[in-house]
Amino acid sequence: MRKRKPQKRYYQPDPRFGDENVTFFVNNLMLDGKKTIAYKIFYDAMDYATEKAGEDGYELWKKALVAISPGVEVKSRRIGGATFQIPSEVRPARKRSVGMKWLIKYARARNGKSMAEKLGSEIMAAAKGEGAAVKKREDTQRMAEANKAFSHFKF
Q1: Long-range contacts from 93-101, C-beta under 8 angstroms, 24+ separation
Q2: By residue range, what is the domain housing residue 135?
Q3: CATH for 111
Q4: To the nearest whole number, what is the mean pLDDT of the chain?
Q5: Looking at residue 155, what is its pLDDT?
């Protein structure tokens, strides 16, 4: 076991919106340490979403993150030779990071010309309550509901 908790990391706010969550998102979006390219992709996606939806892209992004963030998740636990899926609440920090990772994962899997377009489309879909990332959240929620009977095995 750990001797002490790891220190919480704080992120510099991004240059355009002044939001630490944007920096966290861009860090997850970044590949091979190319942060400038990741920022460009994110800002282009915001512009694309603003242009297509007619709303502010940044507000859509925040709405999408709320729509995607999971409330409960299932964790595997081995008890007496059997493995049970045990539902548990998700901490706020984990909600944020899992939601962002799902958004990026399903944006990458989308069909589109550029990553900025794919990300912008996924953000718009998630803000409306549609898209693959929202479906993933609903599936996770459904799985937790189905395994509610095992909640007394909590960690």
Answers
A1: 95/69, 95/70, 95/71, 96/21, 96/24, 96/65, 96/69, 97/24, 97/28, 98/69, 98/70, 98/73, 99/65, 99/68, 99/69, 99/70, 99/133, 99/137, 100/24, 100/25, 100/28, 100/65, 101/28
A2: 20-153
A3: 1.10.455.10
A4: 91
A5: 60
